[in-house]
Amino acid sequence: MTIGDIPKLGAFRKPGKEYVVPYLPVGSVVGDREIAAVTRVLRSGETLSGGGRREEFERNFRDYVGAPYAMSTTSGTVTLELAIHLLGLRPGDEVIVTPQTYQASIQPLLQYPDVEVTFCDVRQDTLNMDPRCLERLIGPRTRAVILVHYGGHPADMHEIMDIARAHDALVIEDSAHALGSVYHGARPGALADIGCFSFHSSKNITTLGEGGMLTFADPEWAERVDRLRGNEVDGSFLPRRHTFGDSKENLPGGLYPGNAYTHDLVALRKHGTNATLPEAAAAMGTSQLRALPGMVERRRAIAARLRETLGRFPGLVEAPEAPEGVIHSQHLFTFFVREGTHGINRHRLLHELDHRGVQVPLRYFPLHLLPEWRARGHRYGECPTAERVWFHEQVNLPCHPALSVRQVDLLCDRLEESLRAACTH
């Protein structure tokens, strides 16, 4: 297969088409409790930025995840930018990443042209980073590993952390899909050195459409992140030997006591940014966090129905379940078709589902094949499992708590009809 053979992402999204089972851009349910929480903030007359509600949300999130620090930002992308900044990357360093995720997971690395980015292939059942592949790739120049808990299924963290620790590499877990998941008694966001969460409208909870959270255990990182998200420079300062003008004493009114605004900057790393999560967004986040268990339970119930339907086609499709000790939040529901002489043609199945009103996006296009990464030298064939699964086997179905009982019934019926139709062609 060549790049020209890649099916277009929009092939199954027809403009203006009404789907009986849509793949909604909203991943949580917003009700009266969230509306009331936001309304109270707006009517309080208090600051809408940098107040107590942000602190409350961070405290609740920290307790839920089990991480010593939880620091909010304005988006998941900003969260990832800050996390990668904390790595302290230098020219010649290597970062190992997964190809199976949304582009924002590794997009900040494009700002580091002298850092080598290596793509690690994925497991064919979970689409998470494959520890066996990681062990082959990791080496003395590896500074960090960036993984994703794909769809909410936690990665093999025990193995991955053992491998990373043996090579003194830091690990960032992109947990944007995994809020509500559990890995052997611990939650994503507290399984590695840094956890990153997104509260985009499509995620398991939202903070008015955008928002993010960093989790970690290092108090020095907490101080740095607080400076960076507050639009301060991340660097060290020394008193200036010479002030602007003649001297501070000659400035009108003695407006500049001590060394205010008169410092030499040492070891500048990055200018800060304004990433303050607004108070109304934080209040909604607290409310959504309380509702999270019920929404995850609903996702898992829908997933169970879908697995029951797929179970009627043994050998033709596979929908692996999480192993013992692992709870899958079901941010995404992914299954795989097994193509072959007696198998199902995935492309045909997608058309059958679309024809019957089930909206099916394909998530996610292998990142190493995107133009920006091909420009950095990456090519088809680097991650054969991720490539084979995405081009031939992977199917994502709607699985979100806003689906009605009727829609879930229709989804299961249309899925079975589409599978039978795809088998006959």
TrEMBL record:
<protein>
    <submittedName>
        <fullName>Aminotransferase DegT</fullName>
    </submittedName>
</protein>
<dbReference type="GO" id="GO:0000271">
    <property type="term" value="P:polysaccharide biosynthetic process"/>
</dbReference>
<dbReference type="InterPro" id="IPR015421">
    <property type="entry name" value="PyrdxlP-dep_Trfase_major"/>
</dbReference>
<keyword id="KW-0663">Pyridoxal phosphate</keyword>
<keyword id="KW-0032">Aminotransferase</keyword>
<comment type="similarity">
    <text>Belongs to the DegT/DnrJ/EryC1 family. L-glutamine:2-deoxy-scyllo-inosose/scyllo-inosose aminotransferase subfamily.</text>
</comment>
<feature type="active site" description="Proton acceptor">
    <location>
        <position position="203"/>
    </location>
</feature>
<keyword id="KW-0808">Transferase</keyword>
<dbReference type="InterPro" id="IPR015424">
    <property type="entry name" value="PyrdxlP-dep_Trfase"/>
</dbReference>
<dbReference type="InterPro" id="IPR000653">
    <property type="entry name" value="DegT/StrS_aminotransferase"/>
</dbReference>
<dbReference type="GO" id="GO:0008483">
    <property type="term" value="F:transaminase activity"/>
</dbReference>
<dbReference type="GO" id="GO:0030170">
    <property type="term" value="F:pyridoxal phosphate binding"/>
</dbReference>
<feature type="modified residue" description="N6-(pyridoxal phosphate)lysine">
    <location>
        <position position="203"/>
    </location>
</feature>
<dbReference type="InterPro" id="IPR015422">
    <property type="entry name" value="PyrdxlP-dep_Trfase_small"/>
</dbReference>
<dbReference type="Pfam" id="PF01041">
    <property type="entry name" value="DegT_DnrJ_EryC1"/>
</dbReference>
